[in-house]
Amino acid sequence: MPLRVVPLGGLGEIGLNSMLFDDGGSALLVDAGLMFPDDTMLGIDFVIPDFGVLRETAPHLSGLLLTHGHEDHIGGVAFFLKEFDVPVYGTALTLGLLKHRLAEYGLNGSARLVEIGRTARFRAGSFDVEAFPVCHSIPDGVGYILRCGEGVFVHTGDFKIHPRPPDGVPTAMARLERLYSEEAVTALFSDSTNVER
Ligand SMILES: [Zn+2]
Q1: Which residues on neighbouring strands pair with residue 81, listed in sequence order?
Q2: 76: CA distance to ligand 1 center in Å?
Q3: Distance 72 CA to ligand 1 centre (A)
Q4: What does the pLDDT look like over 128-153, one tens digit per residue?
Q5: What's CA 135's distance to the chain center, in Å?
Q6: Comparing C-alpha atoms, which of 57, 115, 59, 52 is closest to residue 82?
Q7: Which of 62, 64, 115, 178 is an S-S bond match for 125, by CB 3.0 to 4.6 Å?
Q8: Do the Cβ atoms of 77 and 102 come closer than 8 Å?
Q9: What pLDDT is recorded for position 7?
Q10: Whole-angstrom Cα distance, residue 191 to residue 103?
Q11: Topology of 4-189 in CATH?
Q12: Residue 137 C-alpha to ligand 1 middle, in angstroms?
């Protein structure tokens, strides 16, 4: 079965970042963010992706990968976990921020949080997952290299290429250059904020 990549939000809009990678045997969700309402959404506190769709289309979901701790990437996790009891992978700061959010919804005890290093490589469902550090306006951010039977896919999360990264860790350009030369990358899913500049 070909890999299906389904954005639940975050394309052509600010916020609501959440993307499904589904190879038929297992599926991973990258980020579960919320969107803050604009002036037309009177009485609405925030907008979350429609995770209910996954119940029908991806019941074999095997994990949630988090790229960093901004609300537009983790703000919907509590609602996601009400639908799916799967492991949530993230770096120390990302999970630390998430725990505060989950506590508000009484989910701190039940969530299966898996802390990973910024260069961790692990198996999630049928995917071989490798994290790589990215520089962003919040520390401890990562992107992910996802390997499955259908190829090699790179999801950058939010990133910038900064000569003096605030947390001292630059975006892993050397790792990505090596990846592109050593393995055939099937597709790149990149942050496009400010791409015009
Ligand atoms: Zn961000």
Answers
A1: none
A2: 14
A3: 7
A4: 999 999 999 999 999 999 999 999 99
A5: 15
A6: 52
A7: 62
A8: yes
A9: 94
A10: 29
A11: Metallo-beta-lactamase; Chain A (3.60.15)
A12: 7
